[in-house]
Design brief:
Chains A, B: Its EC number is 4.3.1.12. Chains A, B: It is an enzyme of class 4 (lyase). The structure is a homodimer. Chain A is an alpha/beta fold. Chain A is 33% helix and 26% strand. Chain A folds into two domains: 135 residues, ornithine cyclodeaminase, domain 1 (2-Layer Sandwich); 188 residues, 3-Layer(aba) Sandwich (Rossmann fold). Chain A has eleven helices and 18 strands. In chain A, the strands form three sheets. In chain A, strands 1, 2, 3, 4, 5, 6, 7 and 18 form an eight-stranded mixed β-sheet that branches. An eight-stranded parallel β-sheet of chain A has the order 10-9-8-11-13-17-15-16. In chain A, strand 3 and strand 4 form a beta hairpin. In chain A, helix 1 crosses helix 2 and helix 2 crosses helix 4. The termini of chain A are close together.
Chain lengths: 349, 349
């Protein structure tokens, strides 16, 4: 066989190499740098090619492609959502993504995105809270202690200065797992036995549960004035976490309204209920928190630009680390018109 | 580092392994088997989830995602089109694709698709001609002798019994390359110096040129009664090869009308000009060639189902060949809720 030329290779970041990269950079530093990258892309939001995700639904799950482009770089993420997967010991959500050059259409990098999505989701949450949460917030309630919980806790520690996390999950084993994972991470970790206990003294409430249903993780009387709610788990049609009355009392901030109105907590509200786009708060064209008594709500569903930022960040940090494999993914004959001859010569070589 | 479990691995077919697979199976046998796979998927056409491709356009090219699903398996192709790439020694079109399980959302196989697309395009052309070309066709004109030409010639030899190919390209070097590649393949290969010479005695005319413009590769007076035209090159808005008058004299067969009316030769016609869907000819619900004097035209643009068939065919032929690498692409913690713990343990290991 002939050796492929350099343009034939696409760097691939495996799960193992992504873990190595996280450990190499340090998880809190990586979350902080990711949040900065996402924030700077939100600040130039109008530049991006924005499409709703392309979904293929079945009875038991969904497979989605989430493309975007800033005119120089193109990115997309493949992601599935299959709640019943856990019964077979499989992940509910798996993901991978690709960056490509808009100028040539050639792929630049392929990467696992299960871990990277967990990181970017937490980084986006904490970045939003930096703009919206009350001054001096230091205690966060974490309701839902599944796969996303530790990432949220460390992002809020690194980016928002949270010092205490109060954990609650309907499954005590999830709380136990989360508390154990966080025990040497420089946070005060409190195990709680009810959502009411978890929110005591918290300026920030993060909800991140997994049930695919209209659930009421927080009821209206549990939410006092001035708190910031980081609602992560309500992220697809038919899946919400907050009582509707909380939404009516809150200033609501979203990523991309056409998507959030279908997938977010605000699917419970009228389609013209006022919301603020987070990117406008960041670039100074809309107001963030109006006063110390306002309840702010970041109704997060995850948007393609966050994946784009995350992929570009990883791509920028790969050089010199060796934490990738080169995949021979692009056919690259010496004469672009001679694809067939390349096969013939491979047979002769 | 811990060893990923088996479910974390996704088989990847590199360009080199795709070439080995083609050589292992034999190119004509592979084209024949691919055509059979595509034909059987066309026969169950209504079953498929059909979406127009999701395109991201720039001034100099396009990047597209082409997803489809038959309810059991999901597939998508990434493909770019950048005509100016050849000036830098890059491919105009590169592609890769993925198969996934609809039941779990887990990827089943990642594959290069630059070579595979060339194969499936030729297999689809020849499969259509099997249904539409005049009886006993043995001579094919090949106008446009670029990357697709040899694949077309061998597919028509293997599937339609073509014995002579008559080559013409505005660039004599392309004809020379094509003729050299075909010299030991069991075909009579005639180098021609004009399109008029190429079509002499041909029952099938294949046009496969690359210029992105409204071109007239064939003018009306060049096309006699009874021939089959396999129009491969007119495949995006603003890119056609046939004079409009030819279309008006022909029975026109297409893959997916909503896509072909935008991308195919028939972009030159009224949006309600009658066309026949090829899948209906195959499953017996529409007529193919009406008589020996009819001009039949397969206005081919390439559709996601053909890529799906091709990926599934490759997947079915991989076992036992060793012609793939396992990519550690899916994060697979022992406890699906313990993604963070997996990273921690990777650091300790």
């Amino acid at each position: 066989m002939l050796t492929p030329s350099q343009t034939a290779y696409v760097p691939f970041v495996s799960v193992e190499n992504m873990m190595r990269l996280v450990l190499h950079i340090g998880i809190e530093k990586m979350l902080t740098e990711l949040a900065a990258e996402i924030e700077s892309d939100f600040a130039r939001w109008p530049l991006f090619d924005k499409t709703a995700r392309v979904a293929s639904h079945s009875d038991i799950g969904v497979i989605e492609l989430m493309p975007t482009s800033d005119g120089e770089t193109y990115g997309f993420k493949y992601v599935n959502g299959h709640p019943s997967n856990t019964k077979q010991g499989l992940q509910t959500v798996t993901a991978f993504g690709l960056l490509a050059s808009v100028a040539t259409g050639y792929p630049l990098m392929l990467s696992e995105m299960t871990i990277l999505t967990a990181l970017r989701t937490a980084a986006t949450s904490a970045m939003a809270a930096k703009w919206l949460a009350p001054n001096g917030a230091s205690v966060m309630a974490m309701i839902g202690n599944g796969a996303q919980a530790e990432f949220q806790a460390l992002a809020f520690k690194a980016i928002c200065g949270i010092r205490e996390v109060r954990l609650y999950d309907i499954d005590p084993l999830a709380t136990e797992k989360c508390a154990n994972n966080l025990k040497d991470q420089g946070l005060a970790v409190i195990r709680c036995t009810s959502a009411e206990e978890a929110i005591m003294g918290a300026q920030i409430i993060t909800t991140c549960t997994a049930d695919k249903q209209y659930a009421t993780i927080l009821s209206d009387n549990m939410v006092g004035t001035g708190v910031h709610i980081n609602a992560v788990g309500g992220d697809c049609p038919g899946k919400t976490e907050l009582h509707r009355d909380i939404l009516l009392r809150s200033g609501i901030f979203v990523e991309y309204p056409p998507q959030t109105r279908i997938e977010g907590e605000i699917q419970q509200l009228d389609p013209d209920h006022p919301v603020t786009e987070l990117w406008q708060v960041i670039n100074g064209t809309a107001e963030g928190r109006s006063d110390a008594r306002q309840i702010t709500l970041f109704d997060s569903v995850g948007f393609a630009i966050e994946d784009f930022s995350a992929l570009r960040y990883v791509y920028s940090r790969l050089k010199g680390t060796g934490l990738f494999q080169n995949l021979d993914m692009i056919a690259d004959p010496d004469d672009p018109r001679d694809l067939f001859g390349m096969i013939l010569r491979a047979g002769q070589a």
